[in-house]
Design goal:
By secondary structure, the chain is mainly alpha-helical. The protein folds into 2 domains: 184 residues, MFS general substrate transporter like domains (Growth Hormone, Chain: A, Up-down Bundle); 183 residues, MFS general substrate transporter like domains (Growth Hormone, Chain: A). It has 18 helices and no strands.
Length: 392
């Protein structure tokens, strides 16, 4: 039986979901923090490693084919603990991988479980948000971002202490499983849609609404900017700005700090100004930051530009997920799967696109193109009716 969502229990449920977002982020960032060690231990070159990194997206795509339908039938309440347990198991298998082929299979499984974690935990967040009279989605995504910073810091410590990745992953996995056990009892049955006679036929066909695809494109543009920062910010500082190699990580750190902190104020901004304004301002900040980095390629100005981009990306995906989950007439999990599938292409395609353009010209042109995606966000947010109607 689900816990009654009164004032006290709602806060405990919110804390539980926040912890599970954090757990998901810790699993991913723990793997990411030990990439150099794993790559070197297997003696893989850059080309081979580039192929290896495609295995997580392949696993995520495999998960996307069934996650929405399965979660809609079984419920995110049951799927999320299993998905996080699988995520931990995949992380341990990565640490145990003694060959290239073992690592490939482990990363595919890691991506598969990661997709289920993403859809199920966001479904839980949408369900809880519906019981509040204010937006709370962005704060959950802030938990994931905080986990990214924490995981990177722990990984740096473990690497400096010469801990093998498997021992590092065992510690993180144990803590995550404890957190899952302590919080799984607070998960709730998924949000039930109100029946509307005019939508009976559409629901029977489980036909997604047009606005979900448009929201997916908005998130696509935001995720492309996130991918540009995650994979290319350090190289931009080195190749374009002329920053010493040891100082290059400062760019990504600056971006992550503003994105993480921004997600804890986005909910209040949405409550005050509405979802459309928040998404539009996010697009403007993304475009402004990227164009500033292109126009003024100096260390200080570029770091400031990266911080502006972080603020811009902070609210795009949480706001889109919240609207998609609550405004759709179909199952929340299926709606989120659709939107995340479209948006994920931005994170997947953005970095390679930057690389192709950079190889033909240079990184400044690549970043200028991604800056145009920010303008696309502003334009799309102006025409999506569901955003216009979302006034808090």
């Amino acid at each position: 039986m689900d816990i009654t969502t009164n004032t006290i229990s709602k806060e405990r449920i919110r804390l539980a979901i926040f912890c599970l977002y954090f757990c998901s982020g810790m699993c991913f960032s723990s793997w990411a923090s030990r990439i150099p060690d794993i790559k070197n231990s297997l003696g893989l070159g850059d080309a081979a490693w580039g192929t290896i990194l495609l295995m997580i997206p392949i696993g995520q795509i495999c998960g996307m084919t069934i996650s929405g339908l399965l979660i809609s039938r079984v419920g995110s309440k049951r799927i999320l603990p299993l998905a996080l347990t699988g995520y931990v198991l995949a992380l341990l298998l990565i640490g145990l991988s003694g060959s290239e082929y073992a690592l490939i299979m482990s990363l595919i499984f890691f991506g598969f479980c990661g997709n289920f974690c993403n859809i199920s935990v966001n479904t839980q967040a949408v369900t809880l948000e519906a019981t509040y009279n204010k937006p709370i989605m962005a704060s959950f995504h802030g938990g994931w971002s905080l986990a990214g910073l924490a995981g990177a810091s722990v990984g740096l410590l473990m690497a400096s202490l010469k801990f093998k990745p498997i021992y590092h992953f065992c510690i993180i996995g144990t803590l995550v499983l404890i957190a899952v056990y302590l919080n799984m009892r607070y998960l709730q049955a998924d949000l039930k849609k109100q029946k509307d006679p005019s939508d009976v036929a559409a629901r029977k066909k489980n036909k997604p609404e047009k606005f979900l695809f448009l929201l997916g494109i908005v998130a696509f543009c935001g995720m492309a900017a996130e991918g540009a920062m995650a994979d290319w910010s350090g190289l931009y500082l080195i190749d374009v700005v002329g920053t010493p190699v040891h100082m290059a990580p400062i760019g990504l750190a600056a971006y992550m700090i503003t994105m993480a902190s921004g997600r804890f104020v986005i909910d209040k901004a949405t409550q005050k100004w509405g979802s459309q304004r928040v998404v539009q301002v996010g697009g403007i900040l993304i475009a402004t930051g990227l164009f500033a980095a292109v126009a003024f390629p100096h260390f200080i100005t570029t770091i400031i530009a990266f911080m502006i981009i972080g603020l811009g990306t902070a609210g795009i995906v949480p706001t889109v997920y919240s609207i998609a989950g609550q405004k759709t007439k179909i199952s929340t999990s299926i709606a989120l799967t659709l939107v995340s599938s479209v948006s994920f292409l931005g994170f997947l395609m953005g970095p390679p696109l930057i690389g192709y353009i950079a190889s033909a010209t240079n990184l400044r042109y690549s970043y200028a193109l991604i800056g145009m995606f920010g303008i696309c966000i502003v334009a799309l947010a102006s025409v999506i009716n569901v955003l216009k109607k979302e006034k808090q």
